[in-house]
């Protein structure tokens, strides 16, 4: 349930209303939008009488019931206002959300050694990426496959961060590793296979780091939003949703089926920023550029792409990784679509280079 306050309600009146609501068996949450203040009510709202709430203050415009199972993640909870997830990086704040330029993230599937991660970081930064991705702990189908270098890889990510100023995004697989991951990561990634690891979701929800929540490979959109709700209910509102392809009957020519329809669907359901990962979404580097551009055209807020200095030798996900040169080219192509939809930052070095050429 949400309580929408009238425009220009004095803040003392908002606070008084929140205090009154707090004495009931619910948790009121103040959400300050551009034009209005909304008070979100979570808890046992079924017993609440909207008319009684309405009488609490003459400044209450309306009381709206949220009929979806996800509450904090629902579009209604913020009265339609998109969430802005702000990520601090050494180079400054990077903002994710519908009212911001598309954020480009790139890097290898796994951190392999210092030279490759620092070199990749330099290359993707020069191309315009704002964050470096790289796995230290890797969820692999086979226990005999490379599992990631763990803690030592986190130290290498910290070095790449220091060398380039890029923010870091890396996956946490186990709550026992959360503290060390959170020390290096500017965004904590929860992978597809852990999307419904509810105890992990609660624990990342208790941190103050933004969380990238990948869609489980067999998760419905509602399962995914309920997983986001777990993180938000635990106190962390900074969730970015990442579509990375779902498992369908056809796996012969693509690794997963990238569900780009999720973008317009999510826009009707949630205020959270949306990222697309066309690398896992297709499984093959040759299809990544087409789907990356399609994602921008469909309204994605961010793109995460796997880049490796030598994909043929990669310890994981080589076939879907672009070379740094291919990433340079893709960034130029993405700039064209990004500019067409009004979502490309003029500060991105390659978009500047491109506008010189156009
Ligand atoms: C990854 O980002 O490298 C990864 C393992 O992703 P996913 O959880 O989507 O498979
Ligand atoms: Mn990968």
Can you lay out the helices and strands and say which pair or pack?
Blueprint: E1 2-5, H1 11-22, E2 26-32, E3 37-43, H2 50-54, E4 60-64, E5 85-89, E6 92-96, E7 103-107, H3 114-127, E8 131-133, H4 151-164, E9 167-171, H5 178-184, E10 187-190, H6 198-205, E11 211-214, H7 221-233, E12 239-243, H8 262-269, E13 274-276, H9 278-282, H10 288-297, E14 302-306, H11 324-340, H12 349-357
Helix pairs in contact: 3-4, 3-11, 6-7, 10-11, 11-12
This protein binds phosphoenolpyruvate and manganese (II) ion.
Number of domains: 2
Count of separate DSSP helical elements: 12
Give the beta-strand count. 14
SSE string = EHEEHEEEEHEHEHEHEHEHEHHEHH
| Order of neighbouring strands in the sheet with most strands | 7-8-9-10-11-12-13-14
What is the CATH T-level topology of the largest domain? TIM Barrel
Question: What's the CATH class of the largest domain, please?
Answer: Alpha Beta
**Low-confidence runs of at least 5 consecutive residues:** 349-358
| CATH H-tier superfamily of the largest domain | Aldolase class I
| Rg computed from alpha carbons, rounded to a whole number of angstroms | 21 Å
β-strand amount? 15-25%
Indicate the structural class: alpha/beta
- Mean pLDDT comes to 95
Overall CATH architecture of the largest domain? Alpha-Beta Barrel
User: Which shape, going by the Cα principal axes?
Assistant: elongated
Instruction: State the helical fraction.
Output: 25-40%
The largest pleated sheet is described as: 8 strands, parallel, barrel
Q: What is the terminal separation in angstroms?
A: 50 Å
